[in-house]
Amino acid sequence: MEKVDANGTPLWALAYAVSASTSINQIRQTTDGGYIAVGSAQNVDGLIAALVLKLDANGAVQWQRELGSGTTAAYFNAVLQTSDGGYAVLGESYVTGTPLPVTSVLLVAFGADGTVRWQQNYNNLDSPDLSPTSSEHADSIIQTSEGGYLIGGNWGHGMGLGAYGGALLLKLT
User: Fold this and answer.
1) CA–CA separation, 20 vs 79, rounded Å?
2) pLDDT given at position 125
3) Residues 151 and 108 sit within 8 Å (Cβ to Cβ)
4) Cα dihedral sign for 165, 88, 55, 33?
5) Are 115 and 108 in contact (CB under 8 A)?
6) Domain count, the chain
7) DSSP code for 8
8) What is the full DSSP assignment across 44-105?
9) How far apart are CA 32 and CA 162, in angstroms?
10) 150: domain range?
């Protein structure tokens, strides 16, 4: 990551070697003058893990969290600082080793200190055995005036000529 001033002059540039394959999908400034960055990193088992980096104003890592283990892979796409000073982090998770992974919306609430307050997956469950039947992709999140969340993205079911999908809008209270 690189921070530049209004004229494009670099103020600092840092590399975060979390793994051989690390990606940052979004970064936001926090109320303490630092930054919160989200994306993914490959863990020691070769699994894609969701990544959160909390940085101070100079880009130094204050805390780092990775989510994903066993056969569950995950990545984060969006983050926002919540009204209580914590963070709502949005992304996707999926079980590896299946021919066509079905992704679920993944929402995780972190405290300001990086502790996981809660996490939840959301997916369409319209099959008789209540297993996920479509892939949900979550790209954006806002906090609503009542303290819940509004999530935007898209979903898809199947591949090829029989495939269908559409926009995803999920309101959580």
Assistant:
1) 23
2) 57
3) no
4) positive
5) no
6) 1
7) S
8) TTS-EEEEEEEE-TTS-EEEEEEE-BTTEEEEEEEEEE-TTS-EEEEEEEEETTSSS---EE
9) 49
10) 2-172
pLDDT digits (tens, 9 = 90+) for 85-115: 999 999 999 888 766 667 889 999 999 999 9
Model confidence over 31-84: pLDDT tens digits? 999 999 999 998 777 788 999 999 999 999 999 999 987 788 899 999 999 999
Could you tell me the pTM of the whole model? 0.87
φ/ψ of residue 146, rounded to 5: -90, 5
User: Phi and psi (nearest 5°) for 161?
Assistant: -65, -25
3-state class (DSSP) for residue 163: coil
Q: Which contiguous run of DSSP H or E holds residue 172?
A: strand 164-172
Of 28, 20, 25, 15, nearest to 50 by C-alpha is: 25
Query: Tokens 């679920």 — which residue?
Result: 104
| Better pLDDT: 149 or 72 | 149
Other CB atoms within a 10 A radius of the CB of residue 64 amount to: 15
Per-residue pLDDT at 43: 73
Q: Token match 């039947």: residue?
A: 133
